[in-house]
Amino acid sequence: MNKQQVLELLVEICEDDVILENPDMDLFEEGLLDSFGTINLLVEIENHFDIVVPITDFDREEWNTPNRIAAKLAERQ
Q1: What pLDDT score was predicted for residue 61?
Q2: In the 8-state DSSP scheme, what is residue 15?
Q3: Could you report the per-residue pLDDT of 7-45, keeping only the tens digit for each?
Q4: Cα–Cα distances in angstroms (integers) from residue 18 to residues 5, 15, 30, 56, 77, in the given order
Q5: What single string gives the DSSP state of each residue in 18-66?
C-alpha cells in the first residue's frame, strides 16, 4: 500500500478528485466524508489493503485528512 493508492480509494469513496489536489483538506469539514462514509472507508481499507481498523480506533481528529489517513494506515502495515 502506498499513499497514491490511499488517495485513489478516498477519491472513490468521497466521489471527488479534489482530494488529489489538496491531500491536507479536512474531509469532514468539507462534507466529503460523514459517518456512513467513514464505515465505508474502513470496510474498503480492509478489502483493498487487508488492514483492519476497528471503529473504536477511528478518531476523527486523527483521520480527517487524506495525508493523515495514509500515515495512520502506514503505521498499521
Answers
A1: 93
A2: T
A3: 999 999 999 999 999 999 999 999 999 999 999 999 999
A4: 15, 9, 11, 28, 26
A5: HHHH-TTS-TTTTTS--HHHHHHHHHHHHHHH-----GGG--TTTSSSH
Q: What global pTM score does this model have?
A: 0.94
Q: Is 2 helix (H, G, I), strand (E, B) or coil?
A: coil
- How many Cβ atoms from other residues are within 10 Å of residue 70's Cβ? 20
CATH code of 3-76, in short, is: 1.10.1200.10
In whole angstroms, how far apart are CA 15 and each of 18, 25, 50, 55, 76? 9, 15, 22, 22, 25
Place of cell 500500500: 1
Determine the Cα–Cα distance for residues 37 and 32; give it in Å rounded to an integer: 8
